[in-house]
Amino acid sequence: MAQLFLNGLVTGLLLALPALALTLVFGILKFANFAVGALLTFGAYAGFVANVQFGWPLPLAAAFAALCVALASIIADALVFERLRERGSITLLVASMGVSLVVENICRFFFGNAARSFDVTLARPIRWQGVRINHEQIVTASVVIVALILVHLLLTASPLGRAMRAVADNPSLAAVRGVERRTVARIAWALTGALLGIAGVLAGLDRAIDPLMGWNYQIPIFAAAILGGLGSPLGAVAGALMIGLAEEMSALILPTNYRQVVSFCVILLLLLFRTNGLFGAKAVRK
Amino acid sequence: MSAYLVTLVILVSVAALVGLALNLQWGLAGLVNFGVSGFVALGAYGVAITAPHIGWLPAMIFSALLCAAISMALALLSIRLEENYLAIVTIGFGEIVRILLLNEGWLTGGALGIADIPRPFAAITPPGGGDGVILAFAIALVALVFVLLELLVRSPFGRVLRAVRDDATVASALGKPVLALRVRAFAVGGAVMGLAGALHAFYLTYIDPSQFTPIITAYAFMAVIAGGRGSNLGLLLGAGSIMALLEATRFLKDLVPSIDGAQLSALRLGMIGIGIVLLLILRPQGLVAEPRRRATEFFPNAKGEG
Amino acid sequence: MIENRETDALRVQGLRAGYGRGGDIVCGIDFAQRAESIIAVIGPNGSGKSSFIKTIAGLLPARAGSISVTGSDVTALSPARRVFAGLAYVPQEANVFRSLTIRENLKLATEFLRGRPGIGREQEERVLSLFPEIAARPRTLAGNLSGGQRQMLAFACALLANPEVLLLDEPSAGLSPKIVSQTMEAITRVRESGVTILLVEQNVSAALKIADEVVVLVAGRLSLRAPAKDVKPHDLASLFFGKAA
């Protein structure tokens, strides 16, 4: 029980970064970015190249992955999303599906379908009060917590964060206050790209790297973001923790293959009963 | 007749049905469905499981109704919300169906799938004439669905939907009855996707979960975008040209021998992605533009501002 | 109409604009405004007043024509760059960032204008002295303010950019009569600090009290321009509806 709780917390922390990425883009550009899963996969491969092919240590490889995915996100924005910005959220969503296919298949083209993994030595798990704590779990938890604190500081205490929140709140007012939406959007993409890159490396520690690995996270990420109220950064983090716990705890009554089904049921229940997310973000009814 | 050509025609027919369905849901009713592959899989498994017991026609009807009911439920859940929610629910649905098919082995055969699915008219088919029969069946099915959907589009039902899609003011003014119409259109689209899955299962006579990847969804979107949202004729052209394009890439392997199978499929899928993005950016109206009508044509008594 | 090009704070020539694939809503407007004057734009519903002022602010792209502020052409600039050129705009109703605090709203107003002359500490003190109630509660969420307080905060944010020209879209919308007169009084104070003001207003009598001149917009075109003191509210009725036909 305590073991499942701990696993759930770590799973939730791992989900927190992509859920935050999804919700940040949603807040500023008002569409659910289908490509989060593919970009996460891309981050895992970028980390793989740095770690295994260049022989860099993992922290450096994670930084490299963050940079690569941030760049890829900026390129995707410049080539695709910016040109479609005035055409409505569904057009953007469909476009993000296209981008997702392209990114996933760039990975497949260069690395094939075979599963890969990082070059890390397996450390013995720590035992504490009967609970097994993996080395990877400690790494994941500490990296994510540091990243979350940095993002929180960026959003609440920097001019850039204020500008991002302002654009999310009222884009045309932000424009007439001297904030260029285009620049803010680019920076938001870079930030979400970096988050997804790091998440990809952490996910690659947790399981094998293959071109479809992002799909395993797609539903829980969406569930976490909806649970927290789409567009609310703090909500997304809280939602991610709850989804992580729900998925791991469900192992008590369901086979582990059904973890994603749990997330999907959470989405359905939320749509039925509480569409604003549990944390009361602004209503998104039509 | 060469077996390859038969395969091609069936592939195009399935793609055309899926495309027609998505065109009704997204192009006409304005409700996006990212779970296309889930509905097609459901349709295929529906006939695969029931056809041996109840015959092919009742099995097809069962599949269509099952898909219609589930689409309706998903649409009802999210239709009052912002459109991103329906998109997310349908993405999730597509994945969940795949997981259930893999894990509920007692019903679906798990990863092994289901074999020996009886084809329509199997009892009266002369030995060796199977391809001809399934070919005629596929073409007849596409033609029937096409005619029915065209009738639907031209009926008052279709006209209202189109008007609503083109003019948000009218949509909000009319409120609930319009929501009900859109949900119905979404359900009909789901049923047609089920039929497409059934055709797929009948042709292959063997299905497994790996045949129903999200790529089906991507094909369908590309067909609808290429054909122009709302135009069924454009859709058929779109589905046809995408399949031709995809088949053409098979010959790439002869040209560039250093490429392996995974790379080839990566190239093909990546091209679909690029195609979707390029068509959205360059030809928002599709290859065949639908004549645009103003809402006021259908609601002479409604006055909207600008 | 155009007396002296040097002193015109705002000049608009042959301006056309509209939404999406629809027809023009602003149909060829020529207009010039002297520095430090208040001009009220009035007209019937749907006459294009709001679109006119949005086009000047840059939120609606101009299809033809030009806009210049104190002699420099801003037509090709983004809304954000226009602020830098001296144009400030207060939209109708959604005029503050509701999810940000008062302090954050004020900070944002100048944070991205680095290098524009006349912004900084002194301007902040000057502006906040015009709106003392705003300065008193920096940590309140802007969304929790009353309509009148939000209006004041919006004015303050716009003024922090030290604009040459201030565009106001229906400052009286949704406010009670008492607050409307306070708002109008605030507008005259702003003008006294050296700002040129163009305001769109449905509340004709309130606008007439503070404006130097009135322009009447009907169906996207200027149909009258006159000193405010020569215009009687009841004359306008015939103008609005007579000429619209």
Protein architecture, described:
The complex is a heterotrimer of chains A (286), B (306) and C (245). Chain A has 286 residues and is an all-alpha fold. Chain A has helices spanning 2-29, 36-53, 58-81, 89-111, 135-157, 159-169, 171-176, 181-206, 215-227, 233-249, 259-273; strands at 126-128, 131-133. Chain A is built from eleven helices and two strands. Chain A is globular. The termini of chain A are far apart. Mean pLDDT of chain A is 91; it is low at 281-286. With 306 residues, chain B is mostly helical. Chain B is built from 14 helices and no strands. Chain B has helices spanning 3-28, 36-54, 56-78, 83-103, 105-108, 130-154, 156-166, 168-174, 176-204, 215-227, 232-249, 252-255, 261-282, 295-298. The model of chain C has no long low-confidence stretch (mean pLDDT 86). The chains are: A mainly alpha (286), B mainly alpha (306), C alpha/beta (245). The interface between A and C is medium-sized, with 20 and 30 residues.
Q: Main sheet of chain C, how many strands, which sense, barrel?
A: 6 strands, mixed
Label the overall shape of chain B: globular
How many DSSP-defined strands of chain B? 0
What is the H-and-E element order of chain C?
Answer: EEEHEEHEHHHHEHEHEEH
Q: Within the largest sheet of chain C, what's the order of strands?
A: 6-7-8-3-9-10
- Gyration radius from CA atoms of chain B, angstroms: 20 Å
The CATH topology of chain C corresponds to: Rossmann fold
The overall average pLDDT of chain C, rounded, is 86
Global morphology of chain C: globular
The percent of residues in helical segments of chain B reads: over 70%
Largest interface: A-B, 52 and 46 residues
Structural class of chain C: alpha/beta
Q: What is the tally of helical segments of chain B?
A: 14
- Quaternary status of these chains? heterotrimer
